[in-house]
From TrEMBL:
Keywords, sorted A to Z: Amino-acid transport, Signal, Transport
InterPro entries: BCAA_transport, Leu-bd, Leu_Ile_Val-bd, Peripla_BP_I
Protein name: Branched-chain amino acid ABC transporter substrate-binding protein
Organism, scientific name: Curvibacter microcysteis
Entry superkingdom: Bacteria
Length: 432
């Protein structure tokens, strides 16, 4: 059973008459937040709109890990009673303003850690800045921002922040893995850059041109186009533009429906392309879209892919996850994010955010994808990456069909976190 918490002492009745309604509400919220039986985590990511399926996937992965931690007694063990993790849910609506409102609501409800990443790097950056300001003014109610999917290198580079931790390989790390793979494929000659018009899309294009160009100086970049994120319903005009350029490949940071609709448009046009992407295969519907297009190859990079050889620990987790949720398991990094948090709380023997942050620095865990270290100097996780391609099942390289299709994942290359690690511009300012 959870700890039984004592009710807070009430101010004398004659003082209550002089307190404003807002002050009374603040006192009530503080009393609620002080419950020692739980450590509250706020999930802030899209749960409505064009990317709701992505947000729901991330939420389910997070909730599964939290439930497992609680089933094993929670955190701060051994002790008379473990402290349980409680997951609060907020819809970011893919908006920085909505996310900031959710952050304030989460803090008011007692959250001391935020798990986010599926709303894009600009949203995560806004959350980190707001959390840092809040923490400076309210050190006794500080919050951490744990980022599982937004991969802007600036978040652990020149804009690094003590309160932010990134559990996904960043854009530069992923593009380095892709560039190493393209280097061995001389058939790739002409590349088009098509990306969503926001921070991540622009960076995927920039790092693509820089790192792929460095690996293959002979490659021609024949076009560079940005499009509105989540608002294009028909990618046919973009496909026509790519075709006119003579491109054989596309470097695209698109995800969710922006990726599946691009695949559909190219398939409808009968245009065979190679696509190089960061995480498309871990989003529901992508494998189905590739199989329906019946042409083209989508190569992406992640910490694991379904059907990967020598991944018994992930396979066991995926099997247990499906048995409990009825859904496919796709993203070990999201599952490991609350597990890192729990391990840091245990190491710090504290529920105070600053102490947890210090415990997270240089913390290493033996995860289902192997050893992962949270680099202390910039709060960038160093985790393995596998370059893989969605391809037809052949019984050899691809043995497992996915999403009810005869398409699965073919491993192209494996890299350790240390092999892909980049230098950093981070100059971390740490609170006293």
């Amino acid at each position: 059973m959870p700890f039984a918490s004592c009710p807070p002492a009430r101010p004398p009745r004659h003082l209550l008459r002089h307190l404003s309604a807002s002050t009374l509400l603040s006192l009530a919220a503080a009393a609620q937040a002080a419950d020692p039986a739980t450590f509250k985590i706020a999930y802030i990511d899209p749960l409505s709109g064009p990317f709701a399926n992505v947000g729901e996937l991330m939420l389910l992965h997070t909730q599964y890990a939290v439930d497992e931690i609680n089933a094993k007694g929670g955190v701060l063990k051994p002790g008379p009673q473990g402290v349980k993790l409680q997951l609060l849910q907020f819809d970011s609506k893919l908006s920085a303003q909505e996310s900031l409102s959710a952050l304030q609501a989460a803090i008011d409800q007692g959250a001391r850690a935020i798990i986010t990443g599926g709303s894009g790097s600009s949203v995560v950056s806004a959350l980190v800045q707001a959390a840092a300001k809040h923490n400076e003014r309210n050190p006794d109610r500080a919050v951490l921002v744990l980022n599982h999917s937004s991969i802007d290198p600036d978040l652990t580079g020149k804009s690094c922040n003590f309160w932010h931790f990134q559990f996904e390989a960043n854009t530069a790390m992923k593009m380095k893995a892709i560039a190493n793979t393209i280097k061995k494929q001389p058939s790739i000659q002409k590349v088009y850059l098509l990306n969503q018009d926001y921070a991540h899309g622009k960076q995927w294009a920039r790092y693509g041109q820089e790192l792929v160009g460095l690996a293959r100086p002979d490659i021609q970049f024949v076009g560079d186009t940005l499009h509105p994120i989540g608002r294009v319903k028909d990618f046919s005009p973009y496909v026509a533009k790519i075709k006119a350029s003579g491109a054989d490949s596309v470097i695209t940071g698109n995800w969710g429906q922006d990726m599946t609709l691009l695949l559909k448009a190219a398939g409808d046009a009968g245009y065979k392309l190679r696509y190089f992407n960061h995480s498309a295969g871990s989003v529901p519907g992508t494998v189905l879209a590739v199989s329906q297009a019946k042409m083209g190859e989508l190569t992406w990079v992640a910490e694991w892919h379904p059907g990967q050889a020598d991944s018994a620990r992930v396979d066991a987790l995926a099997k247990a996850y499906r048995a409990r949720t009825g859904k496919d398991f796709l993203a070990p990094r999201i599952d490991m994010t609350p597990r890192f948090l729990a391990a840091a709380i245990q190491k710090a023997q504290s529920l105070e955010a600053r102490q947890i942050a210090r415990a997270l620095e240089d913390l290493s865990l033996d995860t289902v994808v192997g050893p992962v270290r949270m680099r202390g100097e910039d709060h960038q996780a160093l985790l393995p990456q596998v370059v893989n391609t969605i391809a037809p099942v052949d019984g050899k390289a691809v043995k497992l069909g996915w999403e009810g299709t005869n398409y699965g994942f073919r491993t192209d290359a494996l890299y350790s976190g240390n092999e892909l690690a980049q230098g950093t511009e981070c100059r971390m300012a740490r609170p006293q």
